[in-house]
């Protein structure tokens, strides 16, 4: 077993250790099940001897058969109890692993989530954990009983005939060598299979989540080609993994059949020489079969465990990812400033890049006074949205610092910092539920306040026209609502919170011009006395900004008011004229 597998097994045992009582009960019920089940062949052998050698003593025969029935009943009850305990144990472990994986998602840095496909992460948390559950259940159910069966059967056989038992013990390990040799190869194959399955889940998630775009650009055939390619690779990987793993059972069965034949031959010779009775031979043959049978089951379990360990390794890779630096014990923004957040924001010689080999923002210096309205403009990819990510501390700067009310944002709690901002983004976020739930988002706000905010941003008119008004249930990401309607709901949500600082990243990009003019008035009310950062491509929407930052290739190349920048006849003048010239 390689180091990675050893570590994975150790981690799984750590989860099992949380449920020690259940694990002990599982072993106890396994022992009772095996002992009671293996006692039946002895009783059957005695019944045969009773018929053959005692001229059919019916009283003793009935007594023996009643004992056999009682043993079988005890074995069945203990088997049911063991399966019940194993189910609870397995799915408790699976629940804990999923909880740990889901908790990890909440503390992972945004850089990880941005660089890893959502479908692959989803596959690790759902599909891989399900595969692990199947492997664990087989392990607890068949591995325990298999090992117990081998040990106890060996004891019974030794008490009957040490010589024939020696033949069984010498030959049986051959099946283990066969199983071990094959299982070594299957681990890597199952790991490849899990990776391709994650790739497939990623593609399906992407295509379903963007179905409208797929249809709009007639991408169906191309998507099908990509899916067929991944599906073919998954088929090839799965066939290889299953082919090699399926060799285990026939191989061990062949070895076990040879063992059984030799035991039958040796036992028959012993009966002829008077070394044992026909009933004992019958019991011994039954035990020889019982002894070899668990090797077949264990080999199947080992194959399944290779798949389970490969999947568990992928889950642990997610759980072990480096977390965001904890801000536990840091003060809130209000505590640092000594009063309510005023909204003074400054960037001091800030450098940042997503890829450390390719610089993006360099030597950024900005000082925004409380209540100022700052517009950020520039060509695509110049760093506008990146600057918003830094202000919200979705990413930490590589050099320099960003201060809010004089406090370095790395020295305060992220929750406190982010709750000081209200964001309306170009990409909307709505969940499955009613319009009311999506606007209030769990906050204690009256319906009157909600409706007043909706009227101010002109979303009340379209909500009122819906079948159930504010109680209309929408699907994930807004369901059948238009992009503009979804954006209006998000704007209404921010209007209700009114934090000290606002970020509007293309907030009206999907809204018609007539409604946009009305919303501008609502934004002006909302931004009164609040520091506001406005990212916009339509320069007509930021004419009244107190300060306009013009970005290009990660640097602020111009700043000033709309009139000042036009008079300079620089890059802003070119941008403006390209839209209105």
What are the main properties of this structure?
four-stranded antiparallel β-sheet, 12 strands, ABC transporter transmembrane region fold, 581 residues, six-stranded mixed β-sheet, 21 helices
Could you provide a short overview of the structure?
The protein has 581 residues and is α/β, with parallel strands linked by helices.
What does this structure look like?
With 581 residues, this protein is of the alpha/beta class. The protein has three domains: 3-319, ABC transporter transmembrane region fold (Up-down Bundle); 333-420 and 499-580, P-loop containing nucleotide triphosphate hydrolases (Rossmann fold); 428-495, no CATH class. Helices cover 66% and strands 10% of the residues. The protein has 21 helices and twelve strands. The strands form three sheets. A six-stranded mixed sheet has the order 6-9-10-3-11-12, sandwiched between helices. Strands 2-1-4-5 form a four-stranded antiparallel sheet. The longest helix is centred in the N-terminal third of the chain and has 50 residues, at 58-107.
Architecture blueprint of SSEs:
Layout: H1 3-16, H2 20-53, H3 58-107, H4 110-115, H5 118-160, H6 162-171, H7 173-209, H8 211-216, H9 220-246, H10 248-272, H11 278-319, H12 333-337, E1 345-352, E2 361-368, E3 373-377, H13 384-391, E4 399-404, E5 407-408, H14 414-418, E6 421-424, E7 433-434, H15 435-440, H16 447-456, H17 460-465, E8 473-474, H18 483-497, E9 501-505, H19 513-527, E10 531-535, E11 547-552, E12 555-560, H20 562-568, H21 571-580
Parallel strand pairs: 3-10, 3-11, 6-9, 9-10
Antiparallel strand pairs: 1-2, 1-4, 4-5, 7-8, 11-12
Helix pairs in contact: 1-11, 2-3, 2-5, 2-11, 3-5, 3-11, 5-6, 5-7, 5-11, 6-10, 7-9, 7-10, 7-11, 10-11, 16-18
């Amino acid at each position: 077993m390689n180091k990675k597998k050893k570590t994975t097994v150790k981690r799984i045992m750590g989860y099992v250790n949380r449920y020690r009582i259940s694990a002990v009960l599982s072993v106890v019920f396994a022992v009772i099940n095996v002992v009671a089940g293996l006692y039946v062949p002895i009783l059957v052998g005695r019944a045969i001897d009773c018929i053959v050698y005692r001229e059919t003593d019916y009283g003793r025969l009935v007594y023996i058969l009643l004992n056999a029935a009682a043993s079988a009943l005890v074995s069945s009850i203990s088997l049911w109890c063991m399966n019940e305990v194993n189910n609870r144990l397995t799915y408790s472990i699976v629940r804990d692993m999923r909880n740990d994986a889901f908790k990890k998602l909440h503390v992972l840095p945004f850089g990880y989530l941005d660089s890893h496909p959502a479908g692959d992460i989803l596959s690790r948390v759902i599909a891989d954990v399900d595969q692990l559950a199947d492997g664990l259940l087989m392990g607890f159910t068949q591995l325990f009983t298999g090992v117990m069966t081998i040990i106890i059967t060996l004891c019974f056989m030794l008490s009957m005939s040490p010589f024939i038992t020696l033949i069984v013990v010498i030959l049986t390990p051959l099946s283990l060598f066969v199983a071990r040799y094959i299982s070594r190869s299957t681990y890597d194959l199952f790991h490849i299979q899990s990776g391709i399955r994650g790739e497939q889940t990623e593609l399906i998630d992407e295509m379903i989540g963007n179905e409208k775009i797929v249809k709009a650009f007639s991408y169906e055939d191309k998507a099908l080609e990509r899916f067929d390619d991944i599906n073919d690779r998954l088929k090839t990987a799965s066939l290889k993994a299953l082919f090699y793993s399926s060799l285990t059972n026939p191989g061990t069965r062949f070895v076990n059949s040879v063992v059984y034949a030799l035991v039958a031959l040796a036992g028959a010779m012993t009966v002829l020489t008077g070394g044992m009775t026909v009933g004992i031979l019958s019991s011994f043959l039954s035990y020889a079969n019982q002894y070899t049978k668990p090797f077949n089951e264990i080999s199947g379990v080992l194959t399944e465990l290779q798949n389970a360990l490969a999947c568990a390794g992928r889950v642990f890779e997610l759980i072990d990812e480096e977390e965001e630096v904890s801000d536990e014990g840091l003060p809130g923004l209000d505590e640092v400033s000594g009063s309510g957040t005023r909204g003074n924001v400054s960037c001091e010689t800030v450098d940042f890049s997503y890829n450390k080999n390719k610089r993006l923002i360099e030597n950024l210096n900005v000082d925004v006074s409380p209540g100022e309205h700052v517009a950020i403009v520039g060509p695509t990819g110049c760093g506008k949205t990146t600057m918003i990510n830094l202000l919200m501390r979705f990413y930490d700067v590589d050099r320099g610092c960003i201060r809010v009310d004089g406090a370095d944002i790395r020295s305060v709690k992220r929750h406190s910092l982010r709750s000081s901002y209200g964001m309306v983004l170009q990409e909307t976020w709505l969940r499955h539920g009613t319009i009311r739930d999506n606007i209030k988002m769990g906050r204690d706000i009256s319906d009157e306040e909600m409706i007043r905010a909706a009227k101010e941003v002109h979303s009340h008119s379209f909500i009122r026209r819906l079948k159930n008004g504010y109680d209309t249930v929408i699907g994930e990401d807004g369901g059948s609502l238009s992009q503009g309607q979804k954006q209006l709901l998000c704007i209404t949500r921010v209007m209700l919170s009114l934090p000290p600082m606002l970020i509007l990243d293309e907030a009206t990009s999907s809204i018609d011009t007539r409604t946009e003019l009305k919303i501008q008035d609502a934004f002006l009310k909302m931004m009164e006395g609040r520091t506001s950062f406005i990212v916009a491509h339509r320069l007509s929407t930021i004419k009244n900004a107190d300060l306009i930052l013009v970005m290009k290739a990660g640097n602020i190349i111009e700043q000033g008011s709309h009139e000042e920048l036009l008079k300079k006849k620089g890059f802003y003048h070119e941008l403006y004229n390209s839209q209105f010239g």
